[in-house]
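Readers of this paper often ask what the protein records in our data store actually look like. The remainder of this section carries one protein's record, kept here as part of the documentation.

:::
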Amino acid sequence: MLSIGPQTTVHTHTGYEYYAKEFDGFTHTHLEGVGCTGSGGNILIKPILNKNVETTLLKSKQYASPGYYEVSFDNGITASMSVLDNFGVEYYTYPKDIADKGLFIDLSFALSNRFIAETHTIEENKISGWIDTYTTCHGGIYRIYYALQFSNFNAFEKLNEHQYYVSLKADSKSTEVKVGFSSVGVKYAEEKLKDSNIDSVKRASDQAWNSLFSRVTVQGETERENLFYSLLYRGLQAPYKISEGDSMYAAIDGSTKKADFTVYHGWAIWDNYREQLPMLSLLYPEKYKGIVKSIANLYRYGKKDWATKHEPSPTVRTEHAIAVLLDAYEKNYSLDLLSIKDSIIAEVNRLNFNSPDKALESSYDLYAASKIMSILKDDQLATQYRNKALEYKNYWEKDFADLSRDDVDRMQARGLYQGTIRQYRWFVPYDIQGLKNLIGGEAQFIKELDQFFEENNYNHANQPDLQVPGLYNATSQPWKSQKLFRNIMLDTVVQNYFNNNSKGIDPYVGRIYQNQPKAYLRTMDDDAGTMSSWFVLRSMGMSPANIGTPVYYLTAPIFEKVSIHFPNDKKFEIVVENYDKDHFYIQSATLNGKELNQNWLRHEDIVNGGELIITTSAVPNKNWGIENTFVTEFN
């Protein structure tokens, strides 16, 4: 939850722009590339000279690693910071010839003017309190409790209701700021102000991050390895732990509760249910059990599609949480679904079918709700929801069957959200067999998929058609998905669509994923790790068939070897034979020494450990992967 980093002029959705030279200071909440104009940016701290709040901070050089950041400015000020859990340390040094040096503190600072209110108290060299801020897109309100403690402290000088000047002792050359965050109360934030310095926090943070990264080891080209771990890092930014050591946490109705599990928060489920949460469910099961229980727990306290007025930390939205719960249950995560049954029913009753995309999206939630009601032995509701979910066929026939209409390539036509008719028409992940039938059978399904990609209608700058490159896996031509995945990950592609245009206006030609500051396409938010996790899974050779179905399609990894080290000491290895960095077609495969002719595995096949050997080639084997084809079907 605590994420200390630079605040620049100008800035992106996270508050920081790599190429910007001028800094406003440093803020303490950031979310990984979410929509609207970002979220967070709380509590600005700015090192200043001669008590001048307008002190110019122009970057001269900077360095960063996971959990650590440092920067030097033209005026001789340097800043470094490190975070471990919800405790952080900032260290500022000043030029020797300046007598009056200190820090400007703005407790009302937040991105996009989302600050609401704050209260604070001052005690010696410490300031603590709480801050209320609007969430992403002003969808709700979150409250953060904080404590700040300053070394080489001289005095606080109040500048206005929310701003202070912190002066330092005359002979001091530096100051260390310790920061504690909590969702529960000031006392918890203050207890985090440990007796440690920035070096010890950095060492502990390095160790914690390396523990996460080492869950997966990849061996291949250095450029690809670096890209993999950069994107894995981005995929691990949220959700974050909000429960305290005594298991207390803040619920989304404003109450304080005690949990028997680790409570997480910071949701962007509408986006990352597709990729990031499935990645976490596979690679980090010991953490995911708390994450998915935390999602289920939202239903007990008034979950809304967007945020409530009592969020315990920055968050975005939670649509499709029902599918996430189903997916977790099918992967053998322990969930008490019965206790939240009524809340799930209430959410189903609120589903929106008022636009073509909403009709398909809501039908997907109905599918998941139907499966959950079956799990709970409520056959009547299961049948009711199943029948309602299958009405997607009527909506599809009405809006998505006819591609001759003149608006099918126009972004947001007919009230669509961030997509076109061509892109949204494929969104029936739970019933691909039914979609094939609607289109006219498998041959026509493949023909229209071919046309979709040949005409560059696919949009990787957003999520509505994110699953479409993998749809060939559910046909007799899985080798086409093998090629598409590799192209999107590593090759030059044509992208026609962005948030602010329709097809044919200023297309992008180039790579989508790049390990450099401009890492994505324009208007392509990472959306709390969604787009990064898409790459991570496919680079390992796996992709979810459908969220709610514990099945992964197989493709060729971009590495020679991938090893997943599970916390129960089991290991799943993927070894590529006849490896060549430009080979992406699967010739053959074996699983634990036995020939594997199907192009998919179940979740349990992976987490139970074993060895998958994939032999690749420069040309497709059109006979591999077409036996026992896995096609989702809901009837």
About this structure: The two ends are 42 Å apart (CA to CA).
